[in-house]
Amino acid sequence: xxxxxxxxxxxxxxxxxxxxxxxxxxxxxxxxxxxxxxxxxxxxxxxxxxxxxxxxxxxxxxxxxxxxxxxxxxxxxxxxxxxxxxxxxxxxxxxxxxxxxxxxxxxxxxxxxxxxxxxxxxxx
Length: 124
Prior knowledge:
Elements: H1 18-37, H2 39-48, H3 51-61, H4 64-91, H5 98-123
């Protein structure tokens, strides 16, 4: 083949659109939540060992890197939930126009940020 063009369209050809970016992010946050959900039973077992381990657990949670990870996890949960509700509306045939899908996409981003900020302020 003399032609060096790809045989099929690739990601480098397409301009990122809000709907595709949110779809990829939805999948990514689902994976993140799945991985971090494994830590919940481990943390409960760790806490159940007694007050010394509970104090150690609180010290671990007080570290800045852990706080950043937890904020990211809260955002992932808020985004995945909000975008999941958006997909449920799409499954019912609502909001499928370009205008509505972009409006709901921006709403998902805004709602995710607001919910994350609310949780941060409530916990602090």
